[in-house]
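Q: Got a minute? One more chain.
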Amino acid sequence: MNGTEPTARTAHDAAESGADTAEGTAAAAGPAAPRADSAAGAGAPDGRPLRIAYSPCPNDTFVFHAWSHGLVPGAPAVEVTFADIDITNGLAERAAAGSRRAAEGEGPEPVDAGTGGTRTAPASAATSTSAATSASAPASASARLGSVPDADPRLGPLLDLDVLKVSYAVLPWILDEYALLPCGGALGRGCGPLVLTAGPGRAAGLRGKRVAVPSERSTAYLLFRLWAAAEVPGGVGEIVVLPFHEIMPAVRDGAVDAGLVIHEARFTYRDYGLHCLADMGEHWENTTGLPIPLGAIVAKRSLGDRRLRELADTVRSSVTMAWDDPGASRQYVLEHAQEMDPAVADQHIGLYVNEFTADLGEAGYAAVRGLLTRAAAEGLVPPLAPDALAFPPEAGPSAALHDG
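A: Always. Here it is, folded:
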C-alpha cells in the first residue's frame, strides 16, 4: 500500500486552491471558525491558545462549535486543526513516544528514507488548519508519519497539540502522555460499525476473505476483531486498509469481499446496493450490555490537573450550548460536513452526541475498560494499568468522574 501525505493547511490556503471537503481532501476551515472572544480564559501554561484537533464530522463540529467560536464564558482560547481521526491517532502516538524517548535520554526518531512515507506541510500561525489523507493508507497513522523525524520543524506544531479527538483503541499507547477527558467523545448504543458485503451471507463465509477496514488502530477494528474471533471460524483473510469513503465502492465493485464501515455509512450503504452482514455494535452490546466506545477526547497531562478539570467543564458547557441552540452550529457543521446531506448530518449528530458525550459516567468508563481489556486479552493492544483511565477527581461536576 502506498503512503499518504497528511497536510496542515490554513483556511486561506484551502480557499485559494479551491479545495472542497470531500473525503480524503483537505477540509477547509470556516471563515472565523476557531476563535476566542475577549472573555476567553488562559490557554496553555505558556499563555498561548490551546491547540486542539478534531475531525470535520458533524458530531465533532456540533460538540466543539461553542468553544471554538469563543461562546463559552471563561473558556481557554483555542487554535483548531481539522484532521482525520487516523491522523490524530498517529500524532498522539508520535508525541507520546517522543516524550518517552526524551525521558529515557534518547534522541529524536531517525528519518526512515526507505518508506516513501509522508510529508507534513508547514503549519502557519493562522488559527485554523486542516489535516487530511488521500489514496490508500498504510496500516496506521504511525506508519504514515513514520518517515518524518520528530525534530522536523514541519511536524513540530502538530506534535504540540494539547487536546485531540482520538480512537479509544489508541489509548493504551498514549495514556502516559495524555489524560482521557470524561466528556466530548462518542459512545452510544445502536451506533456501531457495520460489516458490509455485496450480497447476503453469513459470518462464517468471511473465512479467508479480503476485508477492507478504515484503520488497524481504531475502535471499529478492535470491535471487528473481537467479533471475528467469536463468529468467523478460522478467521478472515487479508486486511486491506482504505480511506473509509473508498470502502463501500470497493465492496460494490468486488475489489474486496467485505468492508468495515463507520460514521454516516450506516445510513447510506443501501445506496450502494450493499448488505449488512453484521453490526459490530449490536454484537458488542449483546455480549457485554455496555455502550459502544468509539471516539475519545484526550488532553496533555502536562497541562496540570486544574487545567484538565477546566477543560472538561469547557467541553461539557460546549455540548450543553449545542443542545440548547442547535441552530447556532448549523452553518459550521454543514460547512465541514464533506458535502453530506443535511438530513444525514442530523442523523449523525443524533446518533453520536448523547448523554455519554456530556458525561462518560460509570457505564461509559466500564465500556472503555471492557473494550480495552478484551482487546488486550486477544493481543490486540497492550494491557492497561489499573488507574490508566483515572481523571483528576476534584472540584465541581468532575468529582463524580473516575476510572470505573
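A: The first strand starts at residue 9 and ends at 10.
Q: Perfect, thanks.
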